[in-house]
Amino acid sequence: MAHGKGSAAKNQEIITLFLLDRRLGGCTDATQDAYSYQLRPLQRWCQARSLELMSLDEARVREFLAERLNVSPATLVAAVTRLRTFFKWCSEQGHCDDPTTRIRRPKEAQELLPSFTVAQIKCMLRSCDPSTFTGRRDEALVRFLVDSGARVSEAVGLLLHSIDLRSGRATVNGKGQKQRIIFFGPKTTRSLLRYLSCRSGIIGCSDTLL
C-alpha cells in the first residue's frame, strides 16, 4: 500500500504508459478514450484508499466491481473488458501479476437494433436533389450504406482505389483496423458513378470517397 500523492502519481504513470502503448499499437482515439473512461473510476477508487494499481489483487478488483453494480449492464461489461486488457498488459510488462484472470465478463443481453423501413429509405433518397453535387453525394452515400451494410466510419475513410464498381465490391477498414470486403448492387453502382463523375471536376478532391 502506498500513501497520498505517491500512489496517485504512480497510478497515473502506469495508465499513461498503457495508453501510449495502445496508441503505438494502432488503437484509434475513440478506443483510447474508452480505455481512459473505464480506468478513471478505478483510479479514483484507488486514490480514495491510497492504493497503487499494481498492488491490487483479485479480491480488491472484485470489491471495486461490486461497487459498480449500479451502472448499466453494458457499462459493466465494458469496464470488465477494459480492466482485463489493462491488467493483462501490466502483467506482460512485468509490473504486476494479473488479478483479473479468473474474473469473467458479465453476460449482456444482445438487443436487435431496428433497421430502416423501405418507406424511410425512400424518404431519405427523395430528400437528395440529383441536380446538385451535394444531392448526388448524399444519394450515393445512402444507397452505399444501406446496400452494403458498411459503418459510417468505414464509408468516410473508404479510399477510391478500394472500390471496384465493375464487381460491386469494396475493401473497408473496420474496427481495430481489420479489413473486410463488402458488396453493393447495380443501383448503388449507378449512383456512385453519377456522384464520382460530378466529383471529378472539382479541384483538390482527396483520395477518399467523401
Give your account of this protein's structure.
The structure is a single chain. The protein is mainly alpha-helical. It has 2 domains: 89 residues, Orthogonal Bundle (DNA polymerase, domain 1), CATH 1.10.150; 82 residues, Intergrase catalytic core (hpI Integrase, Chain A), CATH 1.10.443. Strands 1-2-3 form a 3-stranded antiparallel beta sheet, with no helix packed on it. The longest helix is centred in the N-terminal third of the chain and has 21 residues. The model has no long low-confidence stretch (mean pLDDT 89).
At the third CATH level, what is the topology name of the largest domain?
A: DNA polymerase, domain 1
Low-confidence region ranges: none
Form type: elongated
Biggest sheet, open or closed, and with what strands and sense? Answer: 3 strands, antiparallel
Assign the CATH superfamily of the largest domain. Answer: Tyrosine recombinase, N-terminal domain
Q: How many DSSP helices?
A: 8
Q: How far do the termini sit from each other?
A: 53 Å
Q: What value does the average pLDDT take?
A: 89
CATH class term of the largest domain: Mainly Alpha
Q: What is Rg?
A: 24 Å
Helix content: 40-55%
Largest sheet strand order: 1-2-3
Q: Give the total of beta strands.
A: 3
Structural class: mainly alpha
Give, in order, the helices and strands.
HHHHHHHEEEH
What would you say the CATH architecture of the largest domain is? Orthogonal Bundle
Instruction: Report the sheet-strand fraction.
Output: 5-15%
Tell me the count of domains.
2
